[in-house]
């Protein structure tokens, strides 16, 4: 299996269970590792034979900036399901983090792995 990755993708999301988090969107950081075979794309040099990471970013940005999530776990599951189903990946690892939420801590988050 080959891996396409998108790292340190930052966007604004409405997420959180605490009252202070409901007031405005927060910056979150996503990193994705998307598993699939890239052999066809390597042979053809054609974007149609692989996953277009620009389309993944565009799709996720549109969805995540317009939705509300309570937990990072829910957001991570949403991302994993979307990429697996819409982009026909066979496996995904999603890392999602909130930045600067706890004093003295750079980021907090969750990492999940899912497959089809």
Automatic annotation (TrEMBL):
Keywords: Folate biosynthesis, Isomerase, Lyase
PANTHER family named among the record's database cross-references: DIHYDRONEOPTERIN ALDOLASE 1-RELATED
Family: Belongs to the DHNA family.
GO cellular component, one term: cytoplasm
Catalysed conversion reaction: 7,8-dihydroneopterin = 6-hydroxymethyl-7,8-dihydropterin + glycolaldehyde; 7,8-dihydroneopterin = 7,8-dihydromonapterin
Domain Dihydroneopterin aldolase/epimerase: 4-114
Pathway listed: Cofactor biosynthesis; tetrahydrofolate biosynthesis; 2-amino-4-hydroxy-6-hydroxymethyl-7,8-dihydropteridine diphosphate from 7,8-dihydroneopterin triphosphate: step 3/4
GO BP annotations, alphabetical order: folic acid biosynthetic process
Enzyme Commission number: 4.1.2.25, 5.1.99.8
The UniProt record lists the keyword Isomerase: yes
Record organism: Azospira inquinata
NCBIfam families, sorted: folB_dom
SMART domains reported in the protein's UniProt record: FolB
GO molecular function, one term: dihydroneopterin aldolase activity
Domain of life: Bacteria
InterPro entries per the UniProt record, alphabetical: Dihydroneopterin_aldolase (IPR006156), FolB_dom (IPR006157)
Pfam families tied to this protein: FolB (PF02152)
Identification of the protein by name: Dihydroneopterin aldolase
């Amino acid at each position: 299996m080959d891996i396409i990755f998108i790292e340190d993708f930052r966007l604004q999301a409405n997420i959180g269970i605490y009252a202070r988090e409901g007031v405005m969107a927060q910056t979150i950081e996503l990193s994705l590792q998307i598993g699939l075979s890239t052999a066809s794309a390597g042979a053809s040099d054609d974007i149609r034979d692989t996953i277009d990471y620009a389309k993944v970013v565009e799709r996720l940005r549109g969805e995540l900036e317009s939705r509300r999530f309570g937990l990072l776990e829910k957001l991570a599951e949403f991302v994993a399901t979307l990429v697996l189903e819409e982009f026909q990946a066979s496996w995904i690892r999603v890392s999602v983090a909130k930045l600067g939420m706890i004093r003295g801590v750079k980021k907090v988050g969750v990492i999940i792995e899912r497959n089809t």
